[in-house]
Design a protein that fits this description.
By secondary structure, the protein is an alpha/beta fold. The protein folds into 2 domains: 239 residues, Bira Bifunctional Protein, Domain 2 (BirA Bifunctional Protein, domain 2); 101 residues, Rossmann fold (3-Layer(aba) Sandwich). It has 9 helices and 15 strands. A 7-stranded mixed β-sheet has the order 3-4-6-10-9-8-7. α1 crosses α5 and α2 packs across α5. InterPro entries: aa-tRNA-synth_II/BPL/LPL, Anticodon-bd, Anticodon-bd_dom_sf, Gly-tRNA_synthase/POLG2.
Length: 360
């Protein structure tokens, strides 16, 4: 079993994050480094693509901050007291009621929130990803339970160990004293469990706002809230804890680099035709939208080549394409898998279709 200190050292060595481990079960002063920032940006893009089969995305506002407290840990309903949110709610609820289907509104805001259960960020503020579902009260509970399942599965698909995610009920300490809503039917937290503790990934709350202009409104709200930096850190810890050695098992769609190119040539001088073939393959891969490691590997010694590929495993790169001297004649390449270290032979004419199938 890997210790938290070992995991943080692996991530720090490969420029994903830095931090100080305390008592073996806390990480303080966490800051994302170059590769960690790239990973976080990919997670953000995946979140932007989230939709649901029972709702419709109406618009995305990237500069909304309508919360006061830490929704993960203190109050899940503090945003109801914000005047800006009241206008936002009335507009969204009115449109959902008029169109007769749930409306999903998304926002990305910066707030002063840096403490998690396991992770404490170095920065005093972090990005909060909010998804607000405006829907009829009559279907609220059904959709609330459905959203819990959908969101848990979403996190499981991004993880190297899907079984670590679970849903935990949350009792809001302010539920009795709040006067802007009738009640909160339920509030839950999607969490990730590690050997050294657990971390909150997402808070989901069902609320019934009541404002002067919406008395007896048949509309209610389900809010999903994610601390982007803390969730990113948890996924990075997951990628190392569940892997062997120094390997980082990042999700293939979130990895900063998705493919590396390695060329095994003869002699000290690299053949120009082999260089051109490498560049051509790189062009093919980038054309289908994959992120290629910007440092191509060239070696004349097979053992040295494998050593270089092991380093790409430590960067979480899911696949590497091996090009050999005979590739110029046969058109055959080898596609190496990070997690198994095994390589399969494919023809250059199939590389585009094959990789597209893997990453989509």
């Amino acid at each position: 079993m890997k210790s938290l200190k070992h995991i943080v050292n692996v991530l720090q060595k490969n420029k994903f994050l830095c931090g100080d481990v305390m008592d073996g079960n806390k990480i303080l002063n966490v800051g994302l480094e170059e590769n960690g920032e790239k990973f976080m940006n990919q997670l953000l893009e995946r979140w932007r693509l989230i939709n649901c089969d029972w709702g419709k995305v109406d618009f995305i506002n990237s500069n909304v901050d309508n919360s006061i407290d830490n929704e993960m840990r203190e109050s899940r309903v503090s945003f109801l007291n914000c005047k800006d949110f009241q206008k936002y709610y009335l507009a969204g609820a009115g449109k959902a009621q008029r169109l007769s289907y749930p409306i999903l509104m998304k926002s990305v805001g910066v707030k002063e929130e840096h403490n998690g259960s396991l992770v404490t960020l170095k920065a005093t503020s972090s990005r909060k990803l909010v998804s607000d579902y405006f829907l009829k009260t009559s279907i609220a509970l059904e959709k609330f339970y459905k959203l819990q399942r959908e969101r848990k599965i979403w996190w499981m698909r991004l993880s190297a160990n899907p079984s670590r995610f679970f849903v935990e009920p949350f009792k809001d300490p302010s539920a009795i004293t709040q006067d802007k809503f009738q009640n909160i039917n339920q509030s839950i937290t999607v969490k990730s469990r590690f050997a050294f503790g657990s971390e909150d990934m997402e808070a989901i709350t069902l609320a019934y706002p009541r404002y002067e202009n919406s008395t007896n409104s048949p509309m209610c709200l389900i809010r999903s809230s994610i601390n982007l930096e803390i969730a990113t850190t948890a996924l990075l810890l997951d990628a190392v804890e569940n892997s062997q050695g120094l390997l980082i098992s990042l999700n293939r769609k979130l990895a900063p680099f998705q493919c590396a190119l390695a060329c095994l040539h003869e002699g000290d001088k690299l053949d120009k035709d082999l260089i051109d073939l490498c560049l051509h393959i790189c062009h093919i891969i980038r054309k289908i939208g994959l992120r290629v490691y910007d440092r191509h590997i060239h070696q004349s010694n097979y053992s040295m080549l494998i050593e270089e590929l092991t380093r790409t495993d430590c960067l979480g790169i899911p696949y590497a394409i091996l090009i050999e001297k005979d590739s110029l004649k046969t058109g055959l390449l080898k596609l190496r898998n990070r997690d198994s270290s095994l390589a399969e032979t494919i023809h250059i004419s199939d590389i585009k279709t094959y990789l597209f199938g893997i990453f989509t």
